[in-house]
Amino acid sequence: MPTTETTTTQAAPLDLAAAIDTAVSAAHTGAAILQSYAHHRADLVIDHKARNDLVSQADREAEAAIIESLQGRTPEFGIVAEETGGAEQGPATWYIDPLDGTTNFLHGIPHYAVSIALVAHAGTRVTGGGPLAEDTPVIGVVYDPCREELFTAVHGIGSWLNGRRIACSRTQSLNDAVLATGFPFRDFSFASQYMPMLQDAICTARGVRRMGAAALDLAWTACGRYDGYWEMGLAPWDVAAGTLILREAGGVCHDMHRQDPWPVGGRVVAGNPAIVEALHKLVAPHLHAP
């Protein structure tokens, strides 16, 4: 009786140790370019992509350097970047924001960062685990060159600030919480939803802060400076790295509608588990269906 032999060849799992090293190196490369322009802002060529949506040669040159660094070491991964776009491909895709907080940077406000994440696609294996059931951020790097603060995270291993483990806050009540948020500034289509959320948060929380860099909002929530964070109208590259950094610090980072596996649609609710549930209850009465 004839037999059929089936051979299944599985791809090797992602090497997360190599990937975090690659991302950190690329972040430092991009940040060096930003800082070379930081004290010569008047010389920057600035373009308006849309109302209140600015891009400078600093953004573009930093992104080009980051992409070159990543492609040189991980040519098998896709790249999605803020200024040059791109597409998902291969077992995982890099999400790059070369300058999160462009408006702060251009006005000399020292609060901006480089954000780089690796999102592994469903079915991809990572070191020490089986195939992922859904797209999942597995590497996160947010580097603040003004404070020389490097936030890093590796899926299943932890989050760090300059090599020291971090954890989100333990605040249990919105009344005791300091929250971060971001106002509508280029897309005002959701303002009618957001403004009542802000009103409720101002009246409920200990304080609400708007600093203008989503990647740092998530990283600061991960290390306990903020207790929670919510925002609408973001892009995937704004939140991919911070999502993992917060999750690996014991926090939660949700798609506001609780539909996507991570906030790829740019509507974020984040914080420690108790604060996230309270924030969901705060935003839900004002949130329209997606």
Automatic annotation (TrEMBL):
GO molecular function, one term: metal ion binding
Cofactor(s) this protein cannot do without: Mg(2+)
Keyword check for Magnesium: yes
Domain of life: Bacteria
Entries under InterPro entries matching the protein: IMPase, Inositol_monoP_metal-BS, Inositol_monophosphatase-like, Inositol_monophosphatase_CS, Inositol_monophosphatase_SuhB
UniProt-listed SUPFAM superfamilies: Carbohydrate phosphatase (SSF56655)
Enzyme class: hydrolase
Binding positions (Mg(2+)): E82, D97, L99, D100, D238
UniProt protein name: Inositol-1-monophosphatase
EC numbers: 3.1.3.25
Family: Belongs to the inositol monophosphatase superfamily.
Catalyzed reactions: a myo-inositol phosphate + H2O = myo-inositol + phosphate
Coiled-coil intervals: none
Cross-referenced Pfam families: Inositol_P
GO BP annotation list: inositol metabolic process; phosphatidylinositol phosphate biosynthetic process; signal transduction
Membrane-spanning segments: none
Record keywords: Hydrolase, Magnesium, Metal-binding
